């Protein structure tokens, strides 16, 4: 039985005439995901009190139609260029999909809105990926009304158009527009700001970050399909890390980090602990090589030319840590945190420009980093959303109560988000093999052995 009842499904077109043109994409736009996929994010709102402004699908529809004028590529369709070597956006004003749904469920029935297939059904419009690529909307939006009066907004944007930072900023602008406010910074689509140099100059080695993540099957793979998702044997879970727990992780790295003249960030300390806990939960062999993929926003790091404010495209790069699993599991946390910090610090303008040249000089379409496979094992990707403006998405009811992923389909993929109450805690959403999740939880919350080899 379906969790929702679809009230209406419409294609929303720009409110005014928009440029009919072809927007050429960079190879950086194409490396993260396959073309017939969407990402997803949801926002949960509680109606605060009776005097709050009314909100209905007409308001959202009008705001979406209005914002698609400056953000007109989102109303277009993805297609292939004439040389068949690059995807482009046909800015044809076909529109974005808007679905209105209702559910008999209440907000308090959901356990922190853990990512799952049910959450996708509840919050994200369905898409028929068997259709021709040029028929698939680049943006899908769903408003779901809950029995208690609250509402959920689900967004499914296309990663070829822009990265998470750009899309979350777009959603905040859309909600402010729905609340009666105006737009400030106009979007910039021209990929010239991340174009390769005339004479490609590859100054760095790029051995890991742009090659498809090729997983290896666990030796105990037959045990992993006994529980969780029937097709993948994985479980998606949420874990809260309090301010005190985060401070304990940072404190454990300080003394040794000071000796080595390193400044350990909160992300490096927390990500190091997550990576360590994952390796232990997976019972990896000591000498097995493991990789940690760290998405890095290049906007503030690129110079000459700089990336303009409002750039709406992909400026997402990857720092990659490579180590022996035994070192990650058994050396103190400062060792892993330092490796992560060094990998991120390496991502400067020269490295990023070299990365762009490296990508563009490779012939043909890039293979998506996250392709047809469903797991990263024995590797891990930790995506930090802690500095993104998702809690600015206020249409008059206040900031969203919860923001997160509806579904994490890739084993080994994880996201870190902050919380709306400002308590400096973090929430980790992660997908792991079901057989590994209980051990992962045990190691994640074991703060007594941070700097031991337990």
How would you describe this structure in keywords?
single chain; 454 residues; alpha+beta; 6-stranded mixed β-sheet; 15 strands; 23% helix; globular
What does this structure look like?
- By secondary structure, this protein is of the alpha+beta class.
- It contains nine helices and 15 strands.
- The model is unreliable at 225-231 (pLDDT under 50).
- A hairpin with a 6-residue loop joins strand 4 (77-80) and strand 5.
- A six-stranded mixed sheet has the order 1-6-7-8-3-13, covered by helices on one side. Strands 9-15-14-12-10-11 form a six-stranded mixed sheet.
- The radius of gyration is 22 Å and the shape is globular.
- The protein has helices spanning 57-67, 117-123, 164-178, 243-259, 266-281, 325-330, 333-345, 349-361, 437-444, and strands at residues 5-12, 21-24, 41-45, 77-80, 87-91, 96-102, 139-145, 151-157, 234-241, 289-297, 316-324, 380-384, 402-404, 413-417, 426-433.
- Report the average pLDDT across residues: 89
Q: Strand arrangement, largest sheet?
A: 1-6-7-8-3-13
pLDDT < 50 stretches: 225-231
Percent of residues in helices comes to 10-25%
Helix vs. strand class: alpha+beta
Bin the strand percentage: 15-25%
* Broad shape: globular
The count of strands amounts to 15
Give the C-alpha Rg: 22 Å
- How far apart the termini lie comes to 46 Å
What summary fits the major beta sheet? 6 strands, mixed
**What's the order of the H and E elements?**
EEEHEEEHEEHEHHEEHHHEEEEH
Number of helical segments? 9
């Amino acid at each position: 039985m379906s969790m929702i009842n679809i009230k209406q499904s419409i294609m929303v077109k720009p409110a005014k005439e928009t440029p009919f043109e072809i927007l050429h994409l960079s190879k950086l736009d194409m490396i993260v995901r396959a073309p017939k996929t969407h990402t997803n994010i949801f926002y949960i709102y509680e109606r605060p009190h009776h005097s709050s402004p009314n909100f209905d699908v007409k308001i959202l529809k009008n705001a979406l139609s209005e914002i698609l004028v400056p953000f007109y590529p989102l109303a277009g369709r993805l297609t292939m260029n004439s040389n068949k070597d690059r995807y482009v956006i046909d800015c044809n004003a076909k529109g974005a999909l808007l679905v209105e749904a209702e559910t008999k469920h209440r907000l308090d029935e959901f356990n922190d809105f853990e990512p799952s297939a049910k959450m996708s059904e509840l919050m994200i419009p369905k898409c028929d990926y068997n259709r021709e690529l040029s028929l698939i909307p680049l943006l899908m939006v769903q408003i779901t009304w809950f029995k208690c009066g609250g509402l959920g907004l689900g967004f499914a944007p296309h990663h070829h158009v822009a990265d998470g930072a750009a899309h979350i900023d777009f959603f905040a602008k859309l909600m402010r527009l729905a609340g009666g406010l105006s737009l400030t910074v106009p979007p910039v689509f021209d990929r010239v700001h991340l174009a390769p140099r005339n004479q490609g100059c590859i100054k760095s080695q790029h051995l890991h970050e742009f090659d498809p993540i090729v997983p290896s099957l666990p030796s105990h793979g037959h045990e992993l399909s006994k529980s969780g998702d029937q097709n993948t044997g994985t479980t998606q879970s949420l874990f809260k890390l309090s301010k005190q727990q985060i401070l304990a992780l940072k404190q454990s790295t300080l003394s040794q980090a000071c000796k080595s003249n390193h400044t350990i960030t909160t992300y490096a300390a927390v990500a190091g602990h997550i990576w360590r806990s994952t390796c232990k939960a997976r019972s990896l062999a000591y000498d097995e090589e493991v990789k940690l993929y760290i998405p890095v926003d290049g906007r503030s790091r690129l110079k000459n030319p700089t990336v303009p404010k409002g750039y709406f495209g992909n400026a997402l790069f990857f720092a990659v840590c490579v180590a022996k699993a035994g070192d990650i599991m058994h050396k103190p946390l400062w060792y892993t945190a330092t490796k992560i910090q060094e990998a991120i610090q390496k991502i400067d303008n020269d490295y990023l420009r070299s990365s762009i040249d490296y990508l563009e000089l490779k012939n043909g379409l890039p293979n998506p980093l996250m392709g047809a496979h469903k797991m990263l094992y024995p590797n891990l990707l930790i995506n930090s959303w802690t500095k993104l403006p998702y809690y600015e998405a206020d249409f008059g009811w206040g900031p969203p109560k919860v923001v997160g992923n509806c579904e994490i389909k890739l084993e080994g993929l994880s996201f870190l988000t902050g919380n709306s109450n400002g308590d400096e805690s973090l929430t980790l959403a992660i997908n792991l093999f079901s057989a590994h999740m209980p051990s992962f939880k045990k190691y994640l919350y074991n703060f007594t052995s941070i700097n031991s080899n337990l």
